[in-house]
Amino acid sequence: MTPPPLDRPAVLGAVVDDMTRCVHYRGPTDIIAIRFACCGDYYPCHRCHEEAAGHPAEQWAPEQHDTAAILCGACGHELTIAEYFAVTACPRCAAPFNERCALHRDLYFQTEPLAGP
Ligand SMILES: [Zn+2]
Ligand SMILES: [Zn+2]
Ligand SMILES: [Zn+2]
Predict the structure, then answer these.
(1) For labelling, which of 58, 68, 97, 111 has a CA lying 20 to 30 Å from the CA of 87?
(2) Closest to 50 in 3D by CA, of 19, 16, 13, 103
């Protein structure tokens, strides 16, 4: 495996190519990696994290949505969570993102604000 270029963060887990596809999700548009709130590391998917991290995943809280936590595997651009929610393709290289990821968004992000006092 060739090491990633220095200007992009390392992606852990069962990565199968340099566009951050993994053994679980490797369709044409499965090209993003997600930084996990618990450890701050990028993984291609929640199953990679589950298998490799050795601890339960934590989800990003709504007030953390300005954190850069999405990596475009095509060009290495990092998006904030809020930016990612607003687009269906990479704003830098225009590579389309897998819209089905929205179906399991709650594995990565708290989508409802916690009930406050
Ligand atoms: Zn973690
Ligand atoms: Zn995976
Ligand atoms: Zn890109």
Answers:
(1) 58
(2) 13
Its pTM stands at 0.87
Residues whose beta carbons lie less than 5 angstroms from ion ligand 3: 72, 74-75, 77, 90, 92-93, 95
Ligand nearest to the CA of 23: 2
| Consecutive 10-residue averages of pLDDT for the chain (117 residues) | 70 96 95 97 96 96 96 97 95 92 83 62
Q: Which helix (H) or strand (E) holds 86?
A: helix 81-86
Neighbours of 43 (CB within 10 A): 26
User: How far does residue 59's CA lie from ligand 1's centre (Å)?
Assistant: 9
